[in-house]
Structures are given as C-alpha cells and as structure tokens.
Amino acid sequence: MPSPLLKMAALCLAAGAVVPNVAAQPGPDMKIQWSMGQASGKPTARHESAAAVVDGKLYLIGGRGDRPLDILDLASGQWRTGSKPPVEINHTQAVTFDGRIYVVGAFNGPFPQENIVPQILIYDPAVDSWTQGAALPAGRHRGGAGVVVRDGHIYLVAGNRLGHNSGFVPWLDRFDPKTGVWTALADAPRPRDHFHAVVLDGKIYAAGGRRSAADQKQPLALTIPEMDIYDIAANRWTTAAAPIPTPRAGVSVVTVGKLVVVMGGESGLQVPAHAEVEAYDPAKGSWTTLTALPVGRHGMQAIKVGDRVHVLAGSGNRGGGPELNDHWIMSGF
User: How far, in Å, CA of 196 to CA of 104, rounded?
Assistant: First the structure.
C-alpha cells in the first residue's frame, strides 16, 4: 500500500498544490531527497514519453497521442513549446549526440499492434526543427527498446516488432551517425521491451521490462527480473549476479556514480504504478532500495543533469492513465 506521505503527494498533485520537499526515509540512502521542481508554466501531461537534455534545457518528447515538444530552461525555470515531432512518437528512449536529440525505435498508432516508426528522427535545438535520419536496420525494425550512446555510436537494444503483440526480440544493433551504417551485434540473453538501457564503465545495462503479449490473459505478468549486461569491447553479454528486487516494466534507468538506478514501472502486482527506486552496484553484485518516488509512475524517461535526476510525466496507474505532468528532482547522492 502507498505510504501516507505518497498519498499526500498524490492528493496535492491532483489539487494543483505545491508539494513540500520529501525527506529521505530511514535506510542506507539517508542523503537521498526528492523535491518538486519549481518552474513557470507546466508541460503537457503525457506517458510513454521520452526526455533529453541539451545545453541546459530539458526536452520532454512525444507520448501517446498528439503531444507537443515541451522545453524547460533549467536555469530560468521557464517552460516553453518547441517544434512538434513530425509524427506521433511513443515507447522510445531519446539520446543526445553531437548537440542534437535522436529518437530511435519508436511506436505510433493504436494499441495493441502499434506501428514502428521506420526512421530515426532527429531534433536540432539550435534551429528548433526535426529531420528524418537513417532508416532502422533492414528486417530489424522495432520499438519499446533501450537506446544508449557510447564512443560516437548509438546502440539499439532489444525491443518489440509488433507493439504489444508478442514481437519481443533480443537483438542488439549499433549505428554510426557519421556513416549511416548499422551493424548487428550479439543477441542479448533474453528478449525484452518496455525498458531502458544505460552505459556504465564500457558496459550496457538492460534493466527492467517485460515480454509484451496483449493476447495473454495477464499481459503485464511477463516482467523480467534479470538484468543483462553487454561488454562493448568484448561483444559479449552476461547477466547481473542478482535479479532486480521488484520486477516491473515501463521503468526509467539512470546511472548515479557507479550505480545503475531503476525507478518506477508497472506490473501485474498492483494497479498503482510502482514508486520503487532500486540501485544495482556492479562491484558488489547486489541491489539497494533507495527512497521511493513521491508519486509512482511508468512510461517516462528520467534524466540526470549534474548532481540531480529529473523525473517528469508518466502514467500514475498501470496502463494508460492518469497521465501526469509533474516534475520531481532527486538529489543528495
């Protein structure tokens, strides 16, 4: 059950009130704190959205339905609207490369067998415009995947070829933005979608997610507890020593120091979206429970900027709603 503190935060959000800072709860992460972002204006509520930061500005991108590009100037605290993506984009993890934002492997269209956006979409903040990039690798189109950047290459990890209809794959592809060439790499140990990936010390971590199968009686039940790890230099996959304590999909993942941090998500275990925040220490091969999100959510992308992690938007319950437009900041790590 949600704690009284989380219930209070949810009620304040619904009423449009300002929520006070949420102090760290007892445990090994006493420095961790959550506070509500203070800004002029509000972004559009959305879920299954992406986010990115370029030159001190945070970009909130896509989501189910027709959603604008919302831009937060982190220095001034002002929200404004940018050029809308050329098509609906959802279920994607955005990355930045060479001062531009790349959206690689997105869905659009209706549930359950969404369309795959077949090309990379590129947003240039300098001119506030979108362009169409290279096509996804032939025969390996998918969305709901993890995406990371490392040493001038973009990696597209796993995903689903059929939206939510059992098209999950374990594929890994590397894209060179300078040449436009895709290279197929070693398959992951298991397929997954509805997850995010991060890079830490030359390794890609695929954390959370599920095997989406809308034709099953329990379509949210096929969550994946194992975290798979790809060594870029060796082109080899392994699996983390310990499974994630709370298996769930629709998570966001960031790195904090030498930790891989998994937050939020949805599962068949409960109707409210998950608020859990759990951190994996590769050196120890173990997980630690951190201070929970003040308001649970799934279908968002958390962004680390300096010594803060920004969490925006998402869905407050499993499935499609309520859509959120709040902004929380994790600090103290």
Answer: 12
